[in-house]
Amino acid sequence: MLARIAGACARSGRSPDQVELIVITKNHPVDLVVELSDLGQDVFGENRDQEAKPKSAALSELRPNAQARWHFVGQLQTNKVKSVLGYASSIHSIDRDSLVAELSKVLTRNEQQVDGFIELNLTGDPGRGGVLPENLGQLAEKVLQEPRIKLRGLMAVAGLGVDARSEFDRVLAIQEVLLSISPESRDLSLGMSEDFEAAIEMGATHIRVGSAITGPRANNA
């Protein structure tokens, strides 16, 4: 995996240090997380609080000296914000004003800060997660008003059955809206097991890789 990341970086004239690997451990036991931690991996991602919370707690108990950081990459309900902020240092799915407000409330109460990515909806379906591109500017302004959320950049998922590079091209075009408002919010959370190399070649700073590292999941829930 590290060799594939390095190869993609070399093809795009980038250093591997410019890409953060987030290993997605959904539907895998904490034993696998411990094994990966022992091998030197310290950044993990989950998309469901009910799985992430006990897993992060178990890792802390089993490996108290591990420097693990957890990224929450799934759709985040407002009633789960308090729980998620108990372990996650980064939220990749900011997509609506009500979520920003709840994050700010909990962060202020806890005197805490968190890194945040605005998730883009590339499908055009308002019922799907993520903000529609035409609403990005308004949501970015809302996030930037909250000093306890550090707006890192954008997150997106390439659609099924479409060319990932064309999807990432769209993200790069939409990114110009964000950069016009917040030039420092340049990070891109793009790419998963099937398309992370293309994502790196097109500028991804964070890749979310699961099965290419962890193998088949225990179930498809």
Radius of gyration over all CA atoms, rounded? 17 Å
Overall pLDDT metric: 95
* Overall number of structural domains: 1
Number of helices: 9
Strand content: 15-25%
Q: Measure the end-to-end span.
A: 25 Å
Q: Tell me roughly what share of residues is in helical segments.
A: 25-40%
Spatial order of the strands forming the largest sheet: 7-6-5-4-3-2-1-8
Tell me what the CATH architecture is.
Alpha-Beta Barrel
| Helix-and-strand structural type | alpha/beta
Major sheet details: 8 strands, parallel
| Order of helix and strand elements from N to C terminus | HEHEHEHEHEHEHEHEH
* Contiguous runs where pLDDT drops below 50 for at least 5 residues: none
Can you count the beta strands? 8
CATH hierarchy, class = Alpha Beta
Principal-axes geometry comes out as globular
Query: CATH H-level name... which superfamily?
Result: Alanine racemase
CATH fold description: TIM Barrel
Could you walk me through the main structural features you see in this protein, from its secondary elements to its overall organization?
This protein has 221 residues and is of the alpha/beta class. It contains nine helices and eight strands. It has an eight-stranded parallel beta sheet. Strand 4 (88-94), helix 5 (97-110) and strand 5 (114-119) form a beta-alpha-beta unit. Helix 6 crosses helix 7. The two termini are 25 Å apart. The mean pLDDT is 95.
